[in-house]
Amino acid sequence: MRIKLNSDSLKSGLNKILTVVDKKNSRPILTYTLISTNTDSIELCATDLEVSAKVKVDAVVDNSGNFCVNAKNLFDILKELPNSEIELILDTSENVLKLNCNDIHYSLLIYPSDEYPKLIFGNESSRFNLLSDQLIEIINKTSYAISDDETRLQLNGIYLHEVEYKLRAVATDGLRLSLVETDLEQGNIDTLINGIIIPKKGVFEIKKLAENYPDKKITISVDESFMYINANNEYYLSIRLIAREYPKYQAIIPSKTTYSITVEKQNLLDAIRRIKIMANEKSNGVRILIQEKEMTITANHPSLGDAQETIPVEFNGKEMEVGFNARFLIDTLQTIDEGEISIELNNELTPVIIKSNNSPNYLGIIMPLKI
C-alpha cells in the first residue's frame, strides 16, 4: 500500500487527535493512531475509550488497508519535516511503515489494526445543529465552573438540557455556577430533555473542533451513553457521557433578590486583579464594601501587607460588606462582554448573581466567602 500526501496536512490532522491519545498507557494499543485508507483520503483515529476522535486528510492512495502507528512518534517526525509531499509505504512482510520525504527516510514499526478498539462516530437519531461559534460561547461561559473533585463525578462536566426550545448549559463546583442558554434551530430534542453531562476532556475536545471550523454548522447527535460531533464530514468526536444524575442546580439560583449594584465590568475586573495580589494565597479572599455610589475592595496578607481600591457604582441599598474568592470573581467577569453588569444579592451570606445586559443569555452565581 502506497500513500502520497502533504506533510503539513498529515501533521495538522494528527495534531487534532493527539490530545485524545491515552496518556496513562492503560493499554499499549491506545498510544497508537489507527490509519485507514479511502480512495482519496486517509482517516486518523485516536481514543482513550472515553473520548475518541477521527480526522480525514486528503491523500492519493493506491490500495485500501489500515494499520496502527505510534501517534506521538509520528507527530514528532512530522514536526521536523519540511512542508513537502511525503510518501508512506506499508510493508506488511517486515511489519513496518516506510516514510519518505525528499532525501529523508524513516521506517516505523506498526501494530495490527485488528486489536484496535471498534469506534462509532455517529447516530442517525436525535440530531441537531449548532454553529461552531455557539459551541465556543457555551464552553467559554461555563467550563471555568466545572469541578475537579473526582469524588463528585456528576460535577466534572457541563450539563446540557433543553428548556423552552433553548439549549441550556450549566456547570458548577458547588461554590459557583455558570449558566448560558442558546437558541435551537428546531423544536424538542427528546434525548436532551432529561439532560446529559459532557466530561471535561470531551468539553475541550469539542472546543478545539469548533475552533477549526469558524462560522460552520456542527452536527451533534446523542444516545444513552455517547455524544457524537461531526464537523463538515471531516472531523469527528465520540464522547462517553457521565452516567450520573446532575444535582438540582435550580435550587442554588435565588428566585428573587433585594439589592442590585450596577458597575462597569472592566473597572471591577481590573480592580479585583490589582487587589488580589495582596490576598491570602489559599483563600484568594477579598472584601467588598458596598456603599451608595461606591464600592471599596480590600485585601490583607499577613506577611505582605494590604491593598485597597474604590470604584464608582450605582447602589441605593443599605451598606454591606461581602467576602469573595477573587479568583472566582475574575473567572466570572472574564466571560462577560464589555459594558455595565449588575450584581444582585439579598445579604452578605446568600448566593450572588452576576448578569450583563450585553450577555442576556448568561448567568453567573458565586457563593460569598467568610473572611
Structural features, described:
The strands form three sheets. This protein has a 13-stranded antiparallel β-sheet with strand order 5-1-7-8-9-6-2-3-4-17-16-15-10. Strands 14-11-12-13-25-24-23-18 form an eight-stranded antiparallel β-sheet. It has a four-stranded antiparallel β-sheet with strand order 21-20-19-22. The mean pLDDT is 93. The chain is built from seven helices and 25 strands. By secondary structure, it is α+β, with helices and mostly antiparallel strands. Helices cover 19% and strands 42% of the residues. The chain folds into three domains: 2-115, Roll (DNA Polymerase III, Chain A, domain 2); 127-251, Roll (DNA Polymerase III, Chain A, domain 2); 253-366, DNA Polymerase III, Chain A, domain 2.
Ordered list of secondary-structure elements with their pairings:
Blueprint: E1 2-6, H1 7-18, E2 32-37, E3 41-47, E4 51-58, E5 60-61, E6 66-70, H2 71-80, E7 85-91, E8 96-101, E9 104-111, E10 127-131, H3 132-142, E11 157-163, E12 166-172, E13 176-183, H4 190-193, E14 196-199, H5 200-211, E15 217-222, E16 226-231, E17 235-240, E18 259-264, H6 265-276, E19 285-291, E20 294-301, E21 305-312, E22 320-325, H7 326-334, E23 340-345, E24 352-356, E25 362-366
Antiparallel strand pairs: 1-5, 1-7, 2-3, 2-6, 3-4, 4-17, 6-9, 7-8, 8-9, 10-15, 11-12, 11-14, 12-13, 13-25, 15-16, 16-17, 18-23, 19-20, 19-22, 20-21, 23-24, 24-25
Helix pairs in contact: 1-2, 3-5, 6-7
